[in-house]
Design brief:
Helix content: 55-70%
Order of helices and strands: HHHHHH
Number of strands: 0
Low-confidence stretches: 4-18
Structural class: mainly alpha
Radius of gyration: 24 Å
Shape: elongated
Strand content: under 5%
Largest sheet: none
């Protein structure tokens, strides 16, 4: 019973603290711009925290997900997360993400091979491989001077 009340108290304290948390400083937004926060990062944020699946993350959903994450990290259920618990959870999550990434990349390798094998005979010839290389280089040598350097404009999406 004490555990129930402790968990309720922690949740209320977290929620109350978050409600009175100051607005993010302008530096936070600048940091996100400077360090690559992108639409992809926002999609990942929404995927991680959108608990009701409506495509929007409310502060309540965010706080609930964070509280659940904290409980999941607390492997010995002592209402605290020590460094070992924190790192173990990170390693487990990282390992899972790497597996998912590897699976996607392997599927993509089969797709790329299918594109490169122009005559669909199951083998890449020197010519087929060279053709893809020429396309790749041309895609980066946008000023067509025969070299790829800082003078080449970045490709447009």
């Amino acid at each position: 019973m004490y555990k129930k009340y402790s968990l309720l108290l922690v949740t209320l304290l977290v929620f109350t603290g978050c409600q009175s948390a100051p607005k993010p400083e302008p530096q936070v937004a600048q940091h996100q711009r400077d360090h690559g926060a992108s639409a992809g990062h926002r999609q990942a944020f929404i995927k991680d925290y959108d608990r009701n699946g409506d495509g929007v993350v409310s502060r309540e959903e965010f706080d609930q997900a964070r509280a659940a994450h904290l409980r999941a990290m607390d492997s010995n259920q002592d209402q605290r997360v020590d460094e070992t618990e924190y790192v173990q959870e990170f390693v487990a999550r990282m390992t899972e993400e790497q597996k998912e990434h590897k699976t996607k990349q392997l599927k993509q390798a089969h797709v790329r091979f299918g594109v490169l094998d122009r005559d669909k005979n199951g083998d890449l010839t020197v010519q087929e491989f060279a053709l893809s290389g020429a396309r790749i280089f041309a895609g980066w040598d946008l000023n067509q001077d025969g070299v790829v350097d800082a003078q080449d404009p970045l490709p447009t999406p």
